[in-house]
Amino acid sequence: MNGVEYAWSTVGDLLRLSATLTLATLAAVNVFSGYPIENIGQHTLHPKFQFRLQSIYGYDSSLGSWHPVLRSFIGFIAFLLIWAGVISAGVIFNLFEAVNYEADARVWVQHSQYAALAICLMHLYIQRYMVKGVSHPGGPREKKIRRVPHWDEGVRSLPSCFGADATVASGGTKKSFWDNIMDNNSSSSRSRSNSDKKQSRWRCAVAEASHEVTTLKFAGVKGAGMTGEPSGRQMWTLDEGKSCATQVDEALVQKLACGGREYDGFDPSKNPNSCDKIFRAQQIRNKMREGAVPPSLDFIPSTAAEAAKKGFHFYSMLQTEDGHWAGDYGGPHFLMPGIIIAWYVMGKPDELLDAHQRQMMLHYLSVHQQSDGGWGTHIESPSTMFGTVMCYVSMRLLGAPKDSEACTKAQTFILNEGGAVYTSSWSKFWLCLLGCMEWEGHNSVPPEMWLLPNWFPFHPG
């Protein structure tokens, strides 16, 4: 066997060894975990909504990393592959002749393992000390946005289905959403005086309650089932035609929900954050109905310990039934449009977003629009093309007329800033999905990657 044949033979041995170790490692961890190999990547459903993603034992799909012991095996397999690559490079580029190793290829093969080891160590050094992590914030923007966030002054009134007690009496004159937005009517407060009537009440359903709401909505959809951990999940739903529960001191509830501060209504020019006021009021109201005594607004702590106890008391009134503290994740303006666009391309199913939820989404988008007609990437940022394109498209899909004041102002902002082609890649993806932009205009992830098993390091999920 001459030198070249010996080198190729060694390459073949290394590749076979790498493949054997890979299969043995994956098989061993699945045997130890008790997961049937055929169930890898499959979902299992449980009547109580328990969920497990069957995947490779020791692989954390959320972190995208393996257990340290498994990483050592994977690292060794990578070393073998690099070693095979170094030997192959020597044969292809005739490095034997270049360094006079033609007489004894075994010396080249032996030395090539040190080159492979050096490559592995260099990779580790570069990854550890020279390459910034994906979450590294980077430096300041070279070209800062000159705009500053600005909203027209004035309190934004809620549609009549969202009053101080989040209720509205059924019946009465119907008004369109746009009528409700434009007019500061107080029909909801008048209707609350009729306590003998059936009412519709917005409720933040949490944990198992949220799963029950979703399961009920999709009851008529063939093949639909719940997956995911119920704890920590929350969603708003409208309970229609429900009788009023035990009444509490609503003025106290509202003052506690505002943290003891005066609240004259939502005015984004003063504070664009909602501060979870409606959710807080719901939690405090429910706890008071159960007999809980809220912290006294008249008591002013005189020591740090008293202040801590009062704060602990207050936040215990906000804790949900499954133990976590829920909150509005309404800061980013690019998240909600995703579900709106998905709802639209799936045929606008009411099971996913019903008419009441769509109405509230329209209201949320309209009250956060800034004076220049745009929306920020998040609710406190100056208007950006990213936030504006996403929010404008969402309003149109939800039924906002193109010639409405809000949509006209948004169109003007987009055109004055150069058009939607200047939006971000995330926004372009949604535009392509809607058919508003050609896929050639977006560097998309090949969809075939979703066919890879969940444990694969390059899986998009």
UniProtKB/TrEMBL annotation:
Top-level taxonomic group: Eukaryota
This protein's GO CC annotations: lipid droplet
Coiled coil: none
GO biological process, one term: triterpenoid biosynthetic process
Keywords annotated in UniProt: Membrane, Transmembrane, Transmembrane helix
Region Disordered, residue ranges: 180-200
Transmembrane segments: 73-96, 108-126
Squalene cyclase N-terminal domain segment(s): 317-459
DNA damage among keywords: no
Transmembrane keyword on record: yes
InterPro entries for the chain: SQ_cyclase_N, Squalene_cyclase, Terpenoid_cyclase/PrenylTrfase
GO molecular function: intramolecular transferase activity
Similarity field: Belongs to the terpene cyclase/mutase family.
PANTHER family: LANOSTEROL SYNTHASE (PTHR11764:SF20), TERPENE CYCLASE/MUTASE FAMILY MEMBER (PTHR11764)
Protein name: Squalene cyclase N-terminal domain-containing protein
Protein's organism: Leptocylindrus danicus
